[in-house]
Amino acid sequence: MKPHAKAQWQIHFCVLLWGFTAILGKLIALPALPLVWWRMLLVTAALLCVPRVWRGLRTLSIRLTAIYAGIGVVVALHWLTFYAAVKLANASVAATCIALAPVFLALIEPWITRRVFDVRELLLGVAVVPGVALVVGGVPADMRLGIAVGVLSALFVACFGALNKRMVEHADPLIVTCIELGAGAAFLTILAPLLPHKGVAFVLPDLHDAALLLTLALACTLLPFALALAALRRLSAFNVQLVTNLEPVYAIVLAIPLLGEQHQLDVWFYLGGVVILGAVFAQPMIVRRTETVSSPEMLGAAESGRE
Question: pLDDT grade, residue 248 (50/70/90)?
Answer without folding.
Answer: confident
